[in-house]
Amino acid sequence: MIKPRPLSGFPEYLPAQQLTFNRVLSVIRSTYEAHGFTPIETPSAELKDVLTAKGGDDAEIYALTRLNGAPDERETDLALHFDLSVPLARYVAQREGELTFPFLRSQVQKVWRGERPQAGRFREFYQADIDVIGRGSLSLLYDAVLPAVVNDALTRLDIGPFCIRINNRQLLQGYFEGLGLAPEAVPQALRILDRLEKVGLDRVREGLTTEFRLDPAALAPFFDLATGRPDPHALLTELEGWAFGVTFERGVSELKAVLSGLRDQGVPTPNFRMDLSVARGLGYYTGTVYETTLPDFPQLGSICSGGRYENLVGNFHRGAFPGAGMSIGVSRFVPALLEAGVLGVGASTTAQVLVTSLQAEHRGEALRLGAELRAQDVRAEVYLEPHRLGQQLRYADRKGFRLAVMVGEEELQAGRVRVKDLRSGEETLLERTQWSQEVRQRLCPPDAIRSRAGPR
Amino acid sequence: MIKPRPLSGFPEYLPAQQLTFNRVLSVIRSTYEAHGFTPIETPSAELKDVLTAKGGDDAEIYALTRLNGAPDERETDLALHFDLSVPLARYVAQREGELTFPFLRSQVQKVWRGERPQAGRFREFYQADIDVIGRGSLSLLYDAVLPAVVNDALTRLDIGPFCIRINNRQLLQGYFEGLGLAPEAVPQALRILDRLEKVGLDRVREGLTTEFRLDPAALAPFFDLATGRPDPHALLTELEGWAFGVTFERGVSELKAVLSGLRDQGVPTPNFRMDLSVARGLGYYTGTVYETTLPDFPQLGSICSGGRYENLVGNFHRGAFPGAGMSIGVSRFVPALLEAGVLGVGASTTAQVLVTSLQAEHRGEALRLGAELRAQDVRAEVYLEPHRLGQQLRYADRKGFRLAVMVGEEELQAGRVRVKDLRSGEETLLERTQWSQEVRQRLCPPDAIRSRAGPR
């Protein structure tokens, strides 16, 4: 006999928590779709050479071998994807003739990283990505669409305050070059800057001044803006007065266009900020960059990051496919928000009504009543074990059903159905002819249906 | 540069087909939930010893190793699950104290099998499982619930005729023992019988008579019933007259109870059949067994199988947890039904409306209009590339948008919005104040909303 044990780094939920997790995924998916980011799904595995084309930390990649195959048949050329960007690049390169550009795609899937698990780090986790890919070129305004989509998703999730922090790599590149750094030294400066949120202003300033012999006084105006959190308009007006050359100015003007696009879409200011400290470690990004933090959960770091990149498919295709994307790290924030009660946990059943029955000869009637409820779009389970009514009702309570339906001799004779509200305890006798419509109305009055349902 | 190439056995869709595939998954999931089968999700990987506890063909299991790790760090103790039953058994054994029984669970996930791919065989594919697990015992009537759920799902999928074929292993066990076979010889007889659909009556009869020296005349009444497709009631009445001992009689009486439960739930007769030829190769099943075929697609074999089993968790737990389950092999039938046009392929966007704009200075207004539509629950994309209107409308046509919204100087001045129906070509000018409500109404009249939306 094998004792089952939890796998470190591979999250798994009990039914009630799973339902909350599924609701989070579903809100994100439907928000992406509401903006026209159409879902694709790529295989969990890619060819190893595809996954490693960009270089990087191969040791974190899970390769697939056949268990107990003949020795020469064990190796395969496959490995599990570690993000959804490489699969997207491969997908676009492989199918570009069949896609329509700009290609707005969403992708919500598991990814795997074989790293040593720590708190908040997973080996299997969900990412929820949106990217827009152009052929040849891509309007800068899409950089304002992505955070608007994320703003919609996080707002609809109703998980409290969040801030999408936006910056521009060209602005940073121009700024540090303007300070006298050689272009190839800038990435190292960005890596230091990128740690501002984590290690604080003093250590970042010290890192920059010692490593590059910069005058702290020269850095002061920058850090005033980076830590002072001025409103976006004030920040950009200030930066427009700075003379740091063409690259810097292009960065500022791009940020300005993004700000204007966010305003046009009605994204409220507290939900986003232009933040000079956001640098994103990856060399990948070439323009706008994003990070998203939950002020009440600073320990989570960024729960949604991304940016603009010059060419998605460089390793797989000769064409130019610029793009921009953001990725919500769902598995990253859900456990913390569940624990804090910010994400609520409710019933551990998807059904609204439990149909009980008192004796074996009533179970046929119970099955009929269940089917009648479902025909009214009411989600219903029929309890079929030969247990006493009390045990059946305890089952209903424990799982969180809204209503219980009771079938007994008395009701059958009278042509009625007894319905118990499991919150109030109130019992009602309904006429057998119209009962399922009445249950439906009670669970969801018509007005609520109207206001909830969007057109399909 | 690496040329991307398709992975044999790992299906991947273009956006329009993906949307159809997603609709199939979504109908199945919501049907499962409507019956109270609550979704869980287990990690893609399990410990190797958990996966191989039951024995079986280990060579088909994909094990995980770390790519390019130090040699002693490459091996892991993990492998990808090859079905959803072993993970369910592990889940129940591990968490039984936290679950409420009977435990009705659904699970729709990918599984992996490292077999040599052939037509219709995949190495990565979706299974959509429902199981009900009892603690200690489980009412036989649940055996009638499972096919009713599958009947609902396949009916709602609207994929043409299907037949859930139902049999009982005890009936078969008793029958062959009654013919004089030793109990331990019966599994081999069932394996021969199970191939009736594939190889035909003659070869099955020949197999049984030669292997077990049975009199062909003695088998005749059985095969008359197995191939004659009598209605379920007639079949069972006939079998009740047969004298094959206690095990056989228990099987017949169980089948009778299942038939009665199916009738109570209103499952129409053409959608199911009591079929003596269904044996299911696996030793796992101990009572009711199911297979589901699509008469128009016999080459697909069974698209949904399952049965009753005596104990789910034998390898992981001392307790008795009897159960019954069915599994829809989604990846198996979707490609054939797409190809035959039985599953339709529509738009390659999730959005209903494309907001176009004629000039750069109108794009802010276009972004505002898009946000206004989404506030009305209308799914809307804003086209932001600096292309001519003709190109924007071609994009809308190719992706399958329903409506295009046009923003130009004239409309802005007049306080109006121009809306073009992309099917009829008809254009309308709407007042800017009420326009988004009107678009919403046009896409989905209130009556349609009412009848589609179920209570939540």
TrEMBL record, chains A, B:
> Which GO molecular function terms does the record list?
ATP binding; histidine-tRNA ligase activity
Instruction: Report keywords, A-Z.
Output: Aminoacyl-tRNA synthetase, ATP-binding, Cytoplasm, Ligase, Nucleotide-binding, Protein biosynthesis
What's a Pfam family this protein contains? HGTP_anticodon
One BP term from GO: histidyl-tRNA aminoacylation
> Which InterPro entries does this entry report, sorted A to Z?
aa-tRNA-synth_II (IPR006195), aa-tRNA-synth_II/BPL/LPL (IPR045864), Anticodon-bd (IPR004154), Anticodon-bd_dom_sf (IPR036621), His-tRNA-ligase (IPR015807), HisRS-like_core (IPR041715), HisRS/HisZ (IPR004516), HisRS_anticodon (IPR033656)
Q: Which residues bind L-histidine?
A: R113, Q127, D131, R280, Y284, Y285
Please give the PROSITE patterns that the UniProt record associates with this protein.
AA_TRNA_LIGASE_II
Cellular component aspect of the GO annotation: cytoplasm
Please tell me where this protein is predominantly located.
Answer: cytoplasm
Q: How does it assemble?
A: Homodimer.
Q: Which family does it belong to?
A: Belongs to the class-II aminoacyl-tRNA synthetase family.
Quote the HAMAP family the UniProt record gives. His_tRNA_synth (MF_00127)
Know the name of this protein?
Histidine--tRNA ligase
Species assigned in the record: Deinococcus hopiensis KR-140
Q: Report the gene name.
A: hisS
